[in-house]
Amino acid sequence: MNNDSMFQPVLSRSKIYKGKYLDLEKMDVLLPDERSSVREIVSVRDAAAVLPVDNEGYAYLVRQHRPAIGRTIIEIPAGLIDEGETAEQSAARECEEETGYKPGNLTELLTYAHAEGYSTGMITLYLGTDLESTGSTNFDDSEFLELTKIPFRELVTKVKAREFIDSKTIISTLISEKLLDF
Amino acid sequence: MNNDSMFQPVLSRSKIYKGKYLDLEKMDVLLPDERSSVREIVSVRDAAAVLPVDNEGYAYLVRQHRPAIGRTIIEIPAGLIDEGETAEQSAARECEEETGYKPGNLTELLTYAHAEGYSTGMITLYLGTDLESTGSTNFDDSEFLELTKIPFRELVTKVKAREFIDSKTIISTLISEKLLDF
After folding, report:
1. Residues of chain B with C-beta less than 8 angstroms from the C-beta of A61
2. Over chain A, what is the mean pLDDT?
3. What is the reported pLDDT for A127?
4. Can you say whether residue A70 is alpha, beta or left, with left for phi > 0 and alpha for psi between -120 and 50 degrees?
């Protein structure tokens, strides 16, 4: 039973592709008018991302190529949540692996659906502070990243000037603007 | 030639699935260390979305079920950009189709990649003002929406309280906070 008049129960689902990073399936859902309709759904693992800001007010970002959009972009450290790991543990791990700095403190900002129209993927954002240099970056096998530092206020200005194009960097910066004194 | 040291040229690509809403392909990219690596890429049409706010300071949102995340959520009007249409034309059309109000003025907020890790999809956000009631909603064939009005300041408060979970509603609200006097 579901009391939500907009609810569309899944009538059937069939796997189209099982891949390394994502799975694709086709679903038939029941519309409120009793007809059925096809939905193509991408299943991905949930992710965590952290905006690391040090005690001098510098944000630590990574530059990397994104073949899906054919562009090299600068973004906050992020990654998929491993099996058995919490979002917070994942954020701390990815931050250290990608920047060499471990956040002593993580403030959860929010969790959002990044492509609610066709993907299961949710991403949880954190603000990372009290950074401690461990010097131990550890990239995934096919990951090529370049660390870049920028004053947090400059990051805010650049996000507002539309210089960043990924949702996690945009959202974490806009929310953190009110949380940081820098 | 590409002077970007992080660039990963596509060596080969093969189509895995051609669907109604999305296509899936597998790419081999050349990594900076000369090895190759597989990427699974979802191709979707780009989208446009608009946060409509009337002269009394009410935001117009739509409630709809999203089978990909199994939830019914409230979000700003949005849709895919049609062939031959600009992002702005698409935003104006979707706003009228989904709410019955046509924006007399559209302010472009920004364009972002909603899932840069695996999807080609970009979405352009607008703030829509000077709303004119045309009373002519026109849903897509399998689209079921419910219009909901909320004072813009309440929307800002709710976004900050993490009550909205889609990136387009979160980003358009946070950016518009500075642009509106309500």
Report:
1. none
2. 94
3. 98
4. left
Cβ separation A40–B26 shorter than 8 A: no
Per CB-CB distance under 8 Å, the chain B contacts of A44 are 118
Q: Which domain holds residue A65?
A: 47-177
The answer to whether residues B87 and B151 belong to one domain is: yes
Residues 140-179 on B with a CB inside 8 Å of A are: 142, 144, 146, 160, 162, 165-167, 170-171, 174-175
Question: Each residue of A102-125: pLDDT tens digit?
Answer: 999 999 999 999 999 999 999 999
Instruction: Determine the Cα–Cα distance for residues B44 and A31; give it in Å rounded to an integer.
Output: 23
Nearest beta carbon to residue A72 from set B6, B113, B118: B6
Instruction: Give the total number of structural domains in chain B.
Output: 2
B58 shares a domain with B14: no
B161 Cβ contact list (under 8 Å, min separation 6): none
Q: Is residue A1 part of a domain?
A: no
B100: buried, middle or exposed (CB in 10 Å: 19+, 13-18, 0-12)?
middle
The CA distance from B26 to A19, in Å, is: 9
Examine the domain organization and report whether A17 and A92 are in the same domain. Answer: no
Helices B167-176 and B152-160: crossing angle, nearest 10°?
120
What's the pLDDT at B136? 77
Decide if pLDDT at B106 tops 60. yes
Residues 7-26 of A with CB under 8 A from B: 7-8, 10, 16-17, 19-22, 24, 26
Same-domain pairing of A63 and A125: yes
- Does residue A151 lie within any of the structural domains? yes
All residues of chain A having their beta carbon less than 8 Å from the beta carbon of residue B114 are 114-115, 167
Is B112 within 8 Å of A167 when comparing Cβ atoms? yes
CA–CA separation, B142 vs A86, rounded Å? 36
Q: What is the pLDDT of residues A9-67, one digit of tens each?
A: 999 999 999 999 999 999 999 999 899 999 999 999 999 999 999 999 999 999 999 99
* B92, pLDDT greater than 80: yes
> CATH number of the domain that A102 lies in?
3.90.79.10
Q: Do residue A115 and residue A38 come from a single domain?
A: no
What average pLDDT is seen over chain B? 94
Residue A2: the pLDDT is 64
Say yes or no: A91 and A16 in one domain.
no
